[in-house]
Amino acid sequence: MTTSRVEFGDVLSMVPKEMAALLESLGVPRFRAKQLFEWLWRHGAESYEAIQVWPKDLREKMTARHPFQRLELVQQQVAHDGTTKLLLQMKDGQRVETVLLPHHYGYSVCVSSQVGCAMGCKFCASGLKGRVRQLTAGEMADQVAFGNQVLRERGAKISRIDVMGIGEPLDNYANLIRFLELVHDPESLNISYRHITVSTSGLVPAMKQLADSGLPVTLAVSLHAPTDALRLKLMPVNRAYPLAKLMPMCRYYAETTGRRVTFEYLLLNDINDGEAEARQLAELVRGFPSHVNLIPWNPVDEHPFQPSPRDHVRRFQSIVQDYGISCTIRRELGQEIDAACGQLRLREEETVSP
Ligand code: SF4
Question: Selecting from 2.60.120.280, 1.10.150.530, 3.40.50.2300, 1.10.3660.10, what CATH number does the domain 11-65 have?
Answer without folding.
Answer: 1.10.150.530
